Amino acid sequence: MKNLRVPEATVTRLSLYSRFLERLDKMGVTTISSGEIAEGVGVSPAQVRKDLAYFGEFGTRGVGYNVNDLKKYTLKILGLDHPWSLVLVGAGNLGFALCTYKSFNVRGFTIKGTFDNDQSKIGKNIGELEVLPIERFEEKVKEYDARIGIIAVPPKAAQEIADLMVDTGLEAILNFAPVALNIPDHIEIRNVDLSVKLEVLTFNLGLHTNK
Amino acid sequence: MKNLRVPEATVTRLSLYSRFLERLDKMGVTTISSGEIAEGVGVSPAQVRKDLAYFGEFGTRGVGYNVNDLKKYTLKILGLDHPWSLVLVGAGNLGFALCTYKSFNVRGFTIKGTFDNDQSKIGKNIGELEVLPIERFEEKVKEYDARIGIIAVPPKAAQEIADLMVDTGLEAILNFAPVALNIPDHIEIRNVDLSVKLEVLTFNLGLHTNK
Fold first, then answer.
1. Best interface-test mutation with A: which of B2, B12, B165, B202 has the largest number of A CBs within 10 A?
2. pLDDT, tens digit (0-9, with 9 covering 90-100), for A160-200
3. Which among B105, B98, B135 has a CA at the least distance from the CA of B119?
4. Please, where in chain A does CATH 1.10.10.10 lie?
């Protein structure tokens, strides 16, 4: 891998290219052009070439990319050439949806444990998972060898859970609580706010209306 | 508003600035610098200034921005100076989580109707909403004056629901099904894949490991 700082937007698109290639590979497609990847994912062909160029030389001019090779390579770059164990805290509606979200498994992510401090939720099953008391978090993280934690608790509880995850030695956090968390620099954190994309839509609808 | 093509990443960040300003405004903060906005949201001060510059001149050199004015202006740009009625199809776990997701309401989004074709779900309540049969979709979209639809059905059913939304006259779609949908150009669509950000995390964890 080249030693360049890769923009996060490139990594995000790489994830989309990777899924598209996985689908094509399953369908038996063997070769593809940057134009076809671009169309499948909804970006420009130049963007596809620029994004892939961060990671080396792919494809043959006039022939295109080998689908299976490029798929495998994108998975490797994304760290998805091996499975990941995750833990989730917050067994509410969102936690329930995340635990049963099939896209995670397809990409090699398995939520191994779900935790809550609500007595009415502890002991219940989400799919094949039993909701465990938060007191067992540390013990179970070690047992599962989990490196990534998902926060699906209400905003008020999110910082406390983030601290617990950091103290327990998790290396990365995906935060669904709509609040900014204070986290040491060596921990990777990304926030998912489900309404941000809605606001991109309303921004664009505003542009139409003003035409 | 200047007549420039605004990058989607700028709109996304504007949404984050807007939330941050809303929080500050509630706390009674009256003035803020681009550096403080930057720190609160986790981007560089230059980025904040560049993003805001798409929409005009704000702030006073050496004084900063008026929090309440800038908050109101960001809401206006994002089309959030008035409420939005939404409809959602797919009353599974994810649909349930979305219908009860408090961030939507805070930003002026109200899911007015939830629809499914599963007899075991129709008639049940999600919060204050009753799950309605999909046959009543068109009638209800008109009654609610909804312009945005949310797709929370399994991938296999997503295209059919997208077609229904387009035929019913919705103008924008937020798609949570992990599948690319074919939509006419005049409809705004954005896809939310909950595992993309996980892959950004694993990419970054890979960089650490390779150090």
1. B202
2. 999 999 999 999 999 998 888 899 999 999 988 888 899 99
3. B135
4. 8-77
Catalogue the long-range contacts made by B161-168 (C-beta closer than 8 Å, 24 or more residues apart). Answer: B161/B89, B161/B90, B162/B189, B164/B89, B164/B134, B164/B137, B165/B89, B168/B137, B168/B138, B168/B141
Residues of A in contact with B98 (CB under 8 A): 194
> What does CATH list as the number for B84-196?
3.40.50.720
Residue A204 in contact with partner chain B when CB distance is under 8 A:
yes
Model confidence band, residue A70 (pLDDT cutoffs 50, 70, 90): very high
Nearest CA to CA, how far is A62 from chain B (Å)?
27
Residues forming CATH 3.40.50.720 domain(s) in chain B: 84-196
pLDDT digits (tens, 9 = 90+) for B115-157: 999 999 999 999 889 999 999 999 999 999 999 999 999 889 9
Cα separation, B68 vs B32, in Å, equals: 10
Cα B201 from Cα B207, distance rounded (Å): 10
